[in-house]
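Hi support team,

I've been running sequence recovery on a batch of backbones for a student project. Most finish fine, but this one hangs at about 90% for roughly twenty minutes before it completes. I'm not sure whether the input is malformed or the queue is just slow. I've pasted the structure tokens below so you can try to reproduce it. Let me know if you need the job ID as well.

Thanks,
M.K.
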């Protein structure tokens, strides 16, 4: 094939690949993606870009490359979902590892593709059409990709899979029921203090029993991650991690200042709220197994099973806005959920996105507590944003924003749905609202603990497992002074950090929740002063996806940066007033 024909082949490619989803998720056929074919096609595209005589050819080649990636990534997402739904399914476990390895191999070719684009004399035209962030991200990726780290990334992904499988297989019997970690949660909110205490003891014991394996996995992950950063020329893994998240608008020093703001303005208020909680529960001292129970007579739990809760969510989103109505009908029509907990299912919850169908997917572990409703608002916030952005912006690669922005979408949706909580909790809806809002505030110090812990670990990577635990416990005492583990030796020695899977799977991600909650609170404050204006700002933020940088997106949504002096203090002051108002109705 000569260059003239190659030019013709790519010149008329105007849109990214998309297929209408006509069936349910379970009916989507998974076929192992052909990475060898994709690699050859991408190499061909690189030649076209290098030899292009006009922008039309470069643009067509660029879109064609993205179409190839849409096919690969969509297959990977379908495989990944099925792997997390059942970690004991050997077929999808092996496929997931295979795909991860092949993407690591492909990263070198993608780096060459970006180099060709950056060196093209038509790069300015591409920047004008798709935005400066696209080019900035490509330039950043040059620092993050090298064939030297491919073997390291394969080992890292395999260790992460081992961690997920290890904790997903943990189970115990409590109060006559077989329980995994999520199955114990309802007992952790029992009005019977002995049952609560026992449930937390069982929960801690599950982690203690596998702590040796988890320590070993984390030791290896630390070594691999440092080795990866060093091979790429970084002085520390922390520097690598910040760039890997495309954190162009702030750095670790800004995050440190934010943590100090949390300590100054949020920790004292959280401590006060926990004291009030102890008074409500009628106990002298709040222990770790009391924290989950907000009310002596019991927390507000949702009314209905999984199907009933999804049906209520559909009613809620139909009323909230035309945009959310369309979105949630799409989700239910195609059954883009896996919500109920079961043995062998990966822990946690997430939202992912299948680019080929412009289809979000929500994964969770329902357990009969208010967290089930939190999923239908938090993860649905992610899903709504991806659904909306994918129909509004040109590039699939820009559907998602950075995590510090993406979590604004999810946490703000939790607040926007406050007026509908009576659908889920009936006469206890006010209790839910008080619990949800106070918990959102009181969780921020914990989020900061996770972030600071990871900084300490990678500043002192030679620490032993026991030294790491001591560091965690010291940080807890600083940011969570109310935390009392009573006589649990494992947790008193700092074992609690192990329950946070982000530390293993997504290092340095967790601070994004704290930053985002600061912004989500601003949406709560705004919508209480006028829904239409607040919703319009939120919708514009969702539509923009990841097409702009963090600070640009905040400006677009009329939000103050968490790093701006006075933001945390002002937001916390206003949220405290709302909490006092909610308290009057419980």
């Amino acid at each position: 094939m000569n260059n003239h024909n190659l030019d013709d082949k790519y010149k008329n490619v105007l849109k990214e690949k998309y297929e209408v989803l006509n069936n349910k998720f379970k009916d989507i056929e998974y076929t192992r993606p052909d990475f060898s074919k994709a690699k050859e096609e991408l190499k061909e595209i690189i030649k076209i870009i290098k030899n292009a005589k006009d922008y039309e050819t470069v643009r067509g080649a660029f879109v064609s490359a993205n179409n190839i990636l849409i096919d690969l990534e969509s297959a990977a997402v379908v495989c990944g979902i099925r792997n997390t739904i059942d970690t004991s399914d050997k077929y999808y476990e092996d496929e997931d590892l295979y795909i991860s390895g092949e993407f690591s191999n492909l990263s070198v070719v993608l780096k060459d593709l970006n180099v060709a684009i950056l060196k093209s004399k038509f790069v300015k035209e591409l920047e004008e059409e798709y935005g400066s962030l696209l080019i900035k991200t490509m330039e950043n990726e040059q620092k993050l990709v090298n064939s030297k780290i491919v073997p390291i990334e394969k080992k890292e992904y395999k260790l992460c899979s081992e961690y997920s499988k290890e904790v997903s297989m943990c189970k115990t019997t409590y109060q006559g029921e077989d329980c995994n970690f999520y199955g114990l949660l309802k007992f952790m909110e029992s009005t019977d203090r002995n049952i609560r205490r026992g449930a937390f003891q069982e929960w801690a014991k599950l982690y203690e029993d596998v702590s040796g394996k988890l320590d070993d996995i984390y030791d290896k992950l630390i070594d691999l991650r440092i080795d990866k950063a060093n091979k790429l020329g970084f002085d520390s893994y922390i520097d690598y991690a910040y760039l890997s998240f495309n954190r162009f608008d702030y750095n670790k020093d800004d995050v440190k200042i934010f943590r100090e703001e949390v300590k100054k303005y949020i920790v004292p208020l959280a401590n006060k709220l926990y004291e009030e909680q102890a008074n409500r529960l009628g106990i002298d001292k709040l222990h770790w197994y009391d924290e989950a129970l907000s009310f002596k007579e019991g927390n507000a739990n949702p009314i209905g099973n999984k199907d009933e809760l999804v049906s209520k969510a559909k009613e809620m989103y139909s009323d909230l806005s035309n945009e959310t109505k369309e979105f949630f009908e799409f989700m239910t029509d195609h059954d883009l959920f896996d919500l109920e907990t079961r043995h062998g299912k990966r822990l946690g919850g997430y939202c992912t996105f299948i680019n080929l169908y412009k289809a979000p997917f929500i994964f969770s572990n329902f357990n009969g507590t208010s967290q089930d409703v939190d999923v239908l608002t938090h993860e649905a916030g992610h899903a709504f944003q991806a659904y909306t952005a994918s129909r509004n912006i040109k590039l699939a690669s820009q559907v998602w924003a950075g995590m510090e922005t993406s979590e604004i979408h999810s946490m703000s949706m939790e607040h926007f749905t406050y007026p509908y909580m009576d659908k889920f909790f009936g006469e206890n809806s006010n209790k839910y609202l008080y619990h949800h809002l106070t918990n959102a505030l009181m969780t921020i110090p914990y989020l900061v603990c996770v972030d600071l812990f990871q900084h300490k670990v990678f500043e002192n990577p030679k620490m032993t497992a026991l030294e790491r635990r001591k560091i965690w416990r010291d940080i807890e005492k600083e940011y969570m002074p109310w935390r009392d583990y009573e006589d649990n030796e494992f947790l008193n020695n700092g074992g609690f950090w192990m329950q946070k899977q982000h530390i293993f799977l997504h290092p340095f991600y967790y601070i994004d929740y704290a930053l985002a909650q600061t912004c989500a609170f601003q949406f709560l404050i705004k919508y209480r002063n006028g829904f239409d204006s607040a919703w319009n700002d939120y919708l514009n933020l969702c539509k923009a996806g990841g097409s702009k940088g963090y600070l640009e997106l905040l400006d677009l949504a009329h939000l103050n940066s968490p790093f701006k002096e006075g933001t945390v203090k002002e937001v916390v002051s206003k949220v405290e007033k709302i909490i006092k108002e909610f308290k009057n109705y419980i």
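--
Follow-up from support: It reproduced on our side and the slowdown came from queue contention, not your input. The two ends are 74 Å apart (CA to CA). No action needed from you.
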